Amino acid sequence: MRKKGQAMLSVKGIFQNGVARPSEPVEERNGQPVIITFLDEESAKEMSAVDNEAWNTLTRLLEDCAMETGIADLAHQHDHYLYGKPKKA
């Protein structure tokens, strides 16, 4: 059963000497069960190419839609600006 607010997560990595090592940091997941799927080299390259293309598309979309608000802390304080909640420390 997942902890409330914690979605399933896929992480790339490598399996060496009986240990799975993620290629990026994974926060707050110690002790959580995992399923390891082994990929052949061709599948890994295909997934990497698809991932890169998707990230490039998303990056272009974000850049195209970006607008300057003049609010330096908008991302951190979005609840304050959207819903009038007190600012976070």
Can you walk me through this structure?
With 89 residues, the protein is of the alpha+beta class. It has one domain (13-82). The chain contains 2 helices and 2 strands. The chain has helices at 41-65, 78-83; strands spanning 13-16, 19-22. It has a two-stranded antiparallel ribbon. A hairpin with a 2-residue loop joins β1 and β2.
Strand content: 5-15%
The total number of structural domains is 1
Mean pLDDT: 85
| SSE order | EEHH
- How large is the count of helical segments? 2
How far from one another are the termini?
32 Å
Task: Offer a concise description of the structure.
With 89 residues, this protein is of the alpha+beta class.
Which secondary structure elements does this structure contain, and how are they paired or packed?
Layout: E1 13-16, E2 19-22, H1 41-65, H2 78-83
Antiparallel strand pairs: 1-2
What brief labels describe this structure?
89 residues, 2 strands, alpha+beta, single chain, two-stranded antiparallel ribbon
